[in-house]
Fold:
Amino acid sequence: MKKNGKICIIMTMIILVGVFIFFKNDAQIEDNIQVISKSENENIHTANDENKEYKEEENKKTENKNIESLKKSITIFISGQVNEPGVVTIESDKRLADAVDLLGGFTDEADLNKINLAMKIEDEKHYIIPKLGEDLDESNGGESLTTNDTSLQTENNKVNINTATLNELDILPGVGEATATKIINYRDENGKFNAIEEIKNVNGIGDKKYENIKDMISIN
Structure:
């Protein structure tokens, strides 16, 4: 009996040792899994942070490009029924109404129903603001009037002051209907202009007005 008792005690101790070893190994495996999981999570977070920074940097580049594009300046020429006809430089995102404002706004005789004040303006274009009752050829569905679309008698897009009609002379900066009539009357009385400078002989055209139109007129 004593022998059997000893055997039972030994077996019990072996079982207890086995259970202890089993739980110890299980705990180590669980710790290893947690370490691996933590490492993977850190890698995922790092990758996400890098991706976020990359997207933010690309967005900033795109915004900067858009801002630079919007701030690009263009130069256009506006004549007709504006208070200060001439060449104006303005940011490319502006509209026709903004450009006219820089030239003192419209005259009381401007026919605003024939133009689209909200239209986008293009570099190196000539926009003509028509007078009430004036019949000018229109382009782009009535959105703009340019020298390229009218029946002007020109040389290299210049107004021929020896043959131009009243409406054709009227588009020159600072030359309204009254001054255009004086030019035609002077031409009828004195013959053709021999030089563009001779247009200063017309009453109402001084040095300043001549400087504004000299690059836009010709004599043949």
